[in-house]
Amino acid sequence: MQDTTAELRQRVRDVSRRYPGSQRAFAEQIGLDATKLSKSLTGTRRFTPAELTRIAEVTGVTVNWLLNGGDDAETAVAVPRRSARSEQGRGGSGDAGRYQQILDAAWHLIAERGYHSVRVSDVAQACGTSAATIHYYFPGRRDLLIETLRYSVKLAFDRQVAELHSISDAHERLLRLVELQLPTEGLLRSEWSIWLQVWNESALDPDLQVLHSDSYTRWHDTIARTIRQGQQQGVFTDRDAEELTVTLTALIDGLGVQVLAGRPGRTVRRMRQVLRDFVEREIVRH
């Protein structure tokens, strides 16, 4: 369970006040009953990890900032490199609000239809605005793909910080990381779709390869950090943490691609079991 501190409550108050609309409208936007939001802000109820993730998504901040007061504060998982856009969302209004609306629309369209099937006019129609407005924030269609990748990294980072913030046992944390990376229906499957398309484009675009490498490094480092922590706690084998990380992330990637490609017998349930078996067999100390 999350530790709801006075500092966290104050930061949520700050972003909710800058949100265009009433507190009730803010509560509805994050999928929370207004009464529950009020109780969370007064300290009589704790925010859940899902609620913190949604608050960060709606307001453009990070869960790390909400919990720890800084986007790059030391936390349970590796911190991503900050995008040039990362400060635009703080507060969720004005130009930042329009930018986030466009990014959300582009992210969902690319995830659902594919990058090469989405036109700038499609994004404009989804936002109820003009193509010129889209180009103001994103000069070219390639910029949309780049920013949707950065957005996917932020979503994953927020989710992991919120879920792992209070888990000190490395074994439990690693299993939770695996669970958070499964391509289940909804948000996670859409994230996988974005990553799959970025992998495809990166094979032909050296500049995109650099961005992809920076983004993927955060995930790799999070796994490696968790394995090393488990070794320090005496719950994981002393095998080379880097090699274990390379193997585990490759296994996750390969199985995820097979699930999305619809290979017979490759289900999320099967993927989960294979990964948990690997952790138990190759990483856990016996």
From TrEMBL:
SUPFAM superfamilies: Homeodomain-like, lambda repressor-like DNA-binding domains, Tetracyclin repressor-like, C-terminal domain
Domain HTH tetR-type: from-to ranges: 96-156
Ranges for domain HTH cro/C1-type: 22-66
Regions recorded as binding DNA: 119-138
CDD domains listed in its UniProt record: HTH_XRE
Source species, domain of life: Bacteria
Keywords associated with the record: DNA-binding, Repressor, Transcription, Transcription regulation
Alphabetized InterPro entries for the sequence: BetI_C, Cro/C1-type_HTH, Homeodomain-like_sf, HTH-type_TetR-like_transc_reg, HTH_TetR, Lambda_DNA-bd_dom_sf, Tet_transcr_reg_TetR-rel_C_sf
Keyword Electron transport set for record: no
PANTHER family per UniProt: HTH-TYPE TRANSCRIPTIONAL REGULATOR RUTR, MYCOFACTOCIN BIOSYNTHESIS TRANSCRIPTIONAL REGULATOR MFTR-RELATED
Protein's UniProt name: TetR family transcriptional regulator C-terminal domain-containing protein
Organism encoding this protein: Saccharopolyspora erythraea
